[in-house]
Amino acid sequence: MSTSTIYMDYQATTPCDKRVLDEMLPYFCEDFGNPHSASHVMGLRAQDAVENARNQIARLVGAVDPKEIVFTSGATESNNLAIQGVARSYKEKGNRIITSVIEHKCILEACRAMGREGFEIIEIPILKNGLIDLQALEEAVNDQTILVSIMTVNNEIGTIQPINEISEICRKKDVLFHTDAAQAIGKIKVDASKVDLMSISGHKIYGPKGIGALYVRLRPRLKLFPIFFGGGQERRIRSGTLPSPLCVGLGKACELAQQNMHSESIKLAEFKDYFIKKIFDNLSKVYLNGDAKQSIPGCVNISFGGVEGEGIMLGMPDICISSGSACTSDSLEPSYVLEALAVNEDLAHSSLRIGFGRFTTFDEVEYVSSRIIETVNRLREMSPIWKG
Amino acid sequence: MKYSKEVMDRYNNPQNIGSLDDSDKNVGTSVVGAPSCGDVIKFQIKVDENGKISEAKFKTFGCGAAIASSALITEWVKGKSLEEAKNIKNKDVAQYLSLPPIKVHCSILAEEAVSKAINDYLTKNQSKTE
User: What domain range includes position B62?
Assistant: First the structure.
């Protein structure tokens, strides 16, 4: 990253922590064995490394048994495996799958694909603060329901869903519960005992891209029809040779996340409070999207009345952030998450998501907030819809 | 979004931002687009006694392409007769700014802004022209 560039898009991805990279490097050229070749020393070394990583991941998510961790290529694969796998394994039991309107695209599209195969997909609405409508969820769970999939933390607005309450509803009605925890792990404490399936990703927690995992509850045993067929690795759930360097990276990233979670969340909460206060003190007609309290500290989503998100970003080319504006998407549709929150469409176009993380400094927070204020003021002066 | 130098120049140093007095009968005004679509252009022209556009101003809510397209049309219409200004087509704007395909709608808005401002001027001055 060039020194003049400031990265504040930690929900999109994170830089790989150098300590993670250092752990990974020996498994490329030296200990390169196939972790499934347990008949010789090179294979065993790789296997040990992968199993150590599995333990590190299990500890972070609160799995009882490391075997409950199944490596995948990332959260998109984990989510697809959970949705498609449960649908195909439990179609005799019922055909209803319940999710929410603000899930990541990979959940929504996997569900819609199952919908085309005959499953009934229910997308639960959310409340104005971005939290799931629990009553609507409870009413939607019928005797045909096989799976509820609700994300732990939303990637655009950072809201934390009431996982314990959702878990209770699912347990009471004997329905499997999957959560996409890609944006949650390492930021808040997650507890695998509350769910049956949980997706995680490496590159959201300072690990490498191309690796993720799916927590699959072991007892009582859960059936999961695979997407890939092959050598039957990963408890026959996910065939394919494990990328041992990436597995090691994900494990190390989880270990570091566990060690740093407490101190990092205090730091990021201070940054978030300072940032929001400064923006609100200096600009009128700004709106916080999501829930101010029930959200992770590293994510701020704000709409700036009278100006357009991409327009703001273009004025700060040295700052990496993102926007829910249609102009930043390929579809020309504004963010469906902000729409679901009943944010006015023009305010959805006016939104910015700012993500703080492990390597963010206070000086950067100070600088970026000042630049946003300056740019919004400049664009408001030339906006025909800005009326002070 | 990767934009051309022409877009960035106009986004960073836009000429002709502002408003003209709409009550002046020599001024034609248009407002095109909608906030819910993410683009609104307010465009104004002032026509001199020789029937030429002597001044043009804009205000835009929108992305870089929308701002650059509206700034560009204010530059282009100046000194032109209404007939000449009517010939400014969206594809000329898109081509000049090398707009990516997904941003071509911004140039369509710009063309619409020019034509509606001219119509507004003509409507205001109907009694004179008839």
Answer: 5-122
